[in-house]
Amino acid sequence: MFVLDKRGTPLQPTTPARARRLLKSGRAVVARHTPFVIRLKDRSVAASEVDGGELGIDPGSKHTGIAVFTAQAGERRGRYGVQRDHRGALIRKKLEQRAAHRRGRRTRNLRHRAPRFFNRARPEGWLAPSLRHRVDVTVSWVDRLSRWAPVRAVHVERVAFDTHAISADRSLEGSEYQHGTLHGTEVCEYLLAKFGRACVYCGATGVPRDAAAVQSTRWALWRALDQRLPTSVASGGRTKWNRTRCGLPKSHSFDALAVGKLDTVTEYATTVLVAGCTGRGTYTRTRSDKYGFPRLRLPRRKQFYGFAAGDLVRAVVPAGKSAGTHTGRVAVRASGNFAIRTRSGLHAVRHTYVRLLQRADGYAYTLCKEPSVMPAHGPRPDAPPLLTANRLGGDSPAPALLRRSPILTREREVPPPPGSGFLGGSR
Questions:
Q1: Of 119, 179, 342, 358, which has the fewest Cβ atoms less than 10 A away?
Q2: pTM score, whole prediction
Q3: Contact status, residue 280 vs residue 286, Cβ threshold 8 Å
Q4: Which segments of 27-182 does DSSP mark as H helices, in order?
Q5: DSSP 323-379
């Protein structure tokens, strides 16, 4: 659990059991519901011992893993895991729909319109909105976690190898990754001639676009993070070698925990917070038809009875069809009949039964279990060697036996702290 002092400065994370004792004794209050953060009322950072922590980031085209851990003498202890789900595909789809609607409205009753798209200049380092979204949201989460934990450094994974740069015999950035050997031909012919409409490595379809998304954003992400905190980069091959050597299964948060130079991982988080990007609503106050013309008008207000769409709420319904306790994101209506979306479905409740837990912040949160970890007493026989300076001088020390982190696991059945259960469940 994240801990803040009485002035909001981050302290070292604590265990759920200790957080419950601090809340029960009145020494702490809840500062945030998700991720769960408490604030001490009688402690300052000057009177506390803060060792600091680090962040590991495993960027991807659809999901990005973030791990908060402490590192000392090559030993890492995982404290918190986050999996962030992008919505770059949705952004691209919305932009295409908007362009189609505008094109239809402008040319439907117009015989000729001179093209003007060549008159618009793009600044250096420009990224498409769907790609810029991946960079901005990752940087935003680094800023968030730095407010809740004493982060001192960031480790970012880059690609395992860059076949495009190797074939071009020079360093590539941004949109240059989209300019291959057949640049200038039609997209369908390019895919047919270059990739055969499938990945040349595994045969999966749709891979070239996802790979280009990661390649185009890697340098922009590194520059943005390096302006905030000391940032080091490592290859995907080293991450896989670290993860295999430590016996960690394949997941986004475990990859983030294994990024960079390390000797062993002794603790890990058994539960990961999945943050899906949902956005903060829209400025438009109409709903359009398939031709792009306004069909319905939305209310000018976004809040009704003190709630807004996307707020994290909890409703306790005593009787009726939706009887029970429901926790999730709410959709508000002027009539007072709200809808709460949980894992079990959509539940219609009255606003009088709803209690606010957290204002909408553009994400939908859920909790999921990490894959089981295989005990690692040493490097696996089938683990590929990694030629580094340390390994050239001798074998690296064998990792210690992995044990579950007390940060996100309970040894016995005890009542969880407020808001630590599944975010979006019903009972």
A1: 119
A2: 0.76
A3: no
A4: 88-107, 129-148, 163-168
A5: -EEEEEEEE--TTSEEEEEETTEEEEEEGGGEEEEE---SEEEEEEEPPPPPP-SS-
Residues 346 and 242 occupy one common structural domain = no
Q: What is the domain-level CATH number for residue 374?
A: 3.30.420.10
pLDDT score of 72 = 87
Structure tokens at 88: 């770059």
At residue 66, what is the residue type? Answer: I
**What is the DSSP secondary-structure string of 113-125?**
----GGG----TT
- Among 328, 345, 360, which residue terminates a domain? 360
221 contact partners, CB below 8 Å, separation of at least 6: 59, 134, 135, 138, 139, 156
- Tens digits of per-residue pLDDT, 334-383? 999 999 999 888 999 999 999 999 999 999 999 999 887 765 544 444 54
- Identify the DSSP state of 69: E
Q: Which domain holds residue 263?
A: 51-90+127-278+365-404
Tokens 């380092």 sit on residue: 125
Residue 354 half-sphere exposure, CB side, CA atoms within 13 Å? 27
Residue 391 CB burial class (10 angstroms; 0-12, 13-18, ≥19): exposed
Number of domains in the chain: 2
Q: pLDDT tens across 117-127, in order?
A: 677 788 888 89
Read off the tokens for 9. Answer: 């400065």
Q: Using CA atoms, how far apart are residues 75 and 403, in angstroms rounded to an integer?
A: 13
* CA–CA distance, 411 with 264 (Å, rounded to integer): 24
Per-residue pLDDT at 206 exceeds 60: no
**Which one-letter amino acid corresponds to residue 272?**
V
